[in-house]
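Final report, section 2: Outcomes. Of the targets proposed, Serine/threonine protein kinase is the one most frequently requested by collaborating groups, and we therefore present its record in full.
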Amino acid sequence: MTVDDRFSAAWADAQSPPDLGLYLSDAADAVQITTLVELVRVDIRERKLRGGLTKSLDDYCDEYPELRSVLLESPSLTRQLDDEATADPDDDRTALAHGTVTSYGPPMLDPLDHVDAGQRIDDFDLVAPIGVGAFARVFLARQRSMQRLVAVKISEDYGAEPQTLAQLDHDYIVRVYDQRLVPERNLRLLYMQFLPGGTLLGVLQKARKVTWTPDRSGQLLLDAIDDSMEARGAARPSGSSVRAELAELSWPETVAWLGRRLADALDYAARRGVLHRDIKPANILLTADGVPKLADFNTSFVVGADPMADFGGSLSYMSPEQLDACHPETPGTAAQLDARSDIYSLGVVLWELLAGRKPFPSDVAQAGDIDALDAMLASRRAGVGADALADLPPDTPAALRRVLLACLHPDKDKRWANGRELATQFDLCLDAHARDLVDPPATSWRPRLRGWLVAFVVAGVGIPNAIASLYLIQQNRALVLTKLSPEATTTMINVSPPINVIAFAIGGIAMAYMCRRLLSMPRRLRRGETYDAVTMAHARTDALFMGVRIVAICFALWIVAGLAWQTALYFTGSVPTVVELHFIAGQVICAAIAIAYPYFLMTFYAVRCIYPVFLPFGRTSSADARQLRSLSRLSNFFLAVAASVPLLGVARVAFIGAEQIPLVLVSLRILCVGGIVAFVFTYWLFRLLEQDLRALERVVSQD
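The predicted structure is given below as tokens.
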């Protein structure tokens, strides 16, 4: 005899209402919620039949707070119980007297009234209840023909759910095997993969019972899974690399780890035209290793189908537009929903898992309860408030907070566009180095330097080029001007200022043009402006190759300036070959100085401060990964150029006469010692830059 059968028998023998709680304590922890719903249903029915003993649904919720959580997640179940509690008891007595009532719920659930554990239906022995909903019940069952454990969802035979689920074959979606129809009982048996790790609801309940401490980690998730497996008599797996990985993650990282996989599942389903529309902790199942899988697409909306065929979902996890579609007095429809609505619901689930409570207040909205729906809509349209932000654990990374807030934005156009974008952002949250680049901590210097782009470019380019110019002037005075005629010397001195002025002007204009997006877009993005994907991709490219383009301008200007001086000297008469060689050698050394050191200064600044600004906005692609690898290869080239500077200075001595060496000895020593020191500095920047590029490559999309 089942628990609810014993409770019904107690009602038949008792003069006063029996204590429902005594029978609830007989149920195992894993099935208490299911048993509670059934006991409440029996209690409502018996109280109505006896008259004068009626009890409202709110009274049950006050007595059993866990019931309120269930009702928040299932408005359909709420309507059923409320209808039963408020129906005219005389109708029930009359029906009972004529023997026409076998169930006191809505007619659509009549076939399920006598389905319980211990029975055999078709090819399945029902072992234990797993969950109960408004339109179905789920049991752990043994399939006789295959001798395996499965989860069987038993519902009335209607709808196209099996056909919808048959499209979905994904690592993070519960695999549906097949369906069986039992026409004599008007039942459909949908049997699917059985996951012994329980649901995310069990993890959430365990997390709420455990006081937060700084060392809370993924082990909490594993402990909740082990509790569920123990209740079902399953053995904990050993030697699992996934469990070992989870145990090492912090709690916020664990939430991001789960979110990354669920976002991938949503993207897979959405690309096949399937929306879930009922994402909640109870519909996220867990394997023994802790891998999440989306389940219960029974309220899924198939694009192109009748949008109001069976609009479902759990109110407390719904997006504003989904609540709007549920509201009888607002113009929203189910046809207006898309993947961003599921992303919102996933954001609510993950926020609740992270903080221990939902980001918005929730009330049980019963049938016709317009006020509760209005309150829910108002709270969601207002966005996440300060109180909800204060609920987040202190160790929540800024990146995860930003990602979840984007999921929960009231305007769906400002949420992540699809599950793939969201999965990439969760990858970022799981990479400590990358998330520190994109969302630096409050104490970091990087956000403060983002507005100093112009000053940094002027200093980073100007100082090395000024040093190169001073070196060239000293070398030309010692090795070039002394070998020229007075007329040629005067010409060279006279043409230098205009050449420098023109070169600096052209270089400044070219650099400003190449950096135009970097100068304006970060500020506009912070103000909430949006850009299309192509513009965002151009901005990321501009930031990544800013250093390359700037030093290319510098190199071109040094070459053009050298040619201009050579041309001016040509018109003054013949120039000794040795003078030309010294002049060219000086230009080469200065060009090496002008490109190697500014490259690392500019690129390090851009990768640390500018490029990460664009990653939270717009989808990245495999092109971004290729660009990061390309920049890494270019860095090796520029490192070689930096190493060559002192070597070039020493090599030049071989072409200088003995009598001229004292004239350049001081500058040569400065060049060699300074070049070595500068190389050590650039090598340090190179190593840091390589780490940054590898971290960023790990988190940009490879698709």
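The mean pLDDT is 81.
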